[in-house]
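User: For my dataset I need records formatted as: sequence, then structure tokens, nothing else. Please produce one.
Assistant:
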Amino acid sequence: MRGIHTLRLLAIAAALLATTVAGAQPLQRYNAIRDTPITRFKQADIDLMTKTIDGALESGKDGATVTWASPGTQNSGSVTPAEDPKGRPGCRMAHIENKAGSLQNAGDYIFCRNKNKGDKAVPWQLVSPWSPS
């Protein structure tokens, strides 16, 4: 189960990093990746963030922010679920904010219910970052 969550986290991290890196000059790309909160998270932070995202997507009301904070660290975040802007059934948008000390990052992402019902399947899959363009 941990391996699936790690792969899912990598997908989320890639999406978070993609919004940070897009449009950056070549030398600035490395700094943008290095200075994102998720690169400072420990596995406990990742697990708590993932649980919070899944819970908010599953039963959170549109526009109601759900927060998480890792005990004993400066790592925290929030997720605010909303309707999928494209109106796809089984999909939702989530505004995700993460903090690690003074590092902060935020973005909007589309998640859809995972159709794979296996024992180790995650309930929601990241589909893509979202921007209103």
